[in-house]
Design a protein that fits this description.
By secondary structure, the protein is mainly α. The chain contains three helices and no strands. The relative contact order is 0.07.
């Protein structure tokens, strides 16, 4: 098997003399732009021990809700208790 080429070989030839110019578009302008397929709730991945996941699944079945709704509710409550809740709060 051939050895993979170094990533430095893929750099453009003008990279050494490049300079950065300030853009006329601010980051606030970029955040205001609509994004195709933008979801109401952004995706977050949390890794939990197997026994915690099992407990969450059992609680979700018992309360006839989704695990993600339980997690969102718990995180929202935690943020509210710590004084970090802002804007709209999660309601399942």
């Amino acid at each position: 098997m051939a050895k993979r080429a170094s990533l430095s070989t893929f750099a453009p030839a003008h990279a050494d003399g490049a300079h950065v110019e300030k853009s006329a578009v601010s980051s606030a302008d970029l955040m205001a732009l609509p994004v195709a397929g933008k979801k109401k709730y952004p995706h977050v991945t949390v890794y939990l021990p197997a026994d915690v996941v099992r407990t969450l699944k059992l609680l979700a079945i018992d309360s006839e809700t989704r695990v993600s709704d339980l997690c969102a509710e718990a995180i929202t409550e935690w943020l509210r208790q710590k004084g970090h809740a802002r804007g709209k709060t999660f309601k399942a």
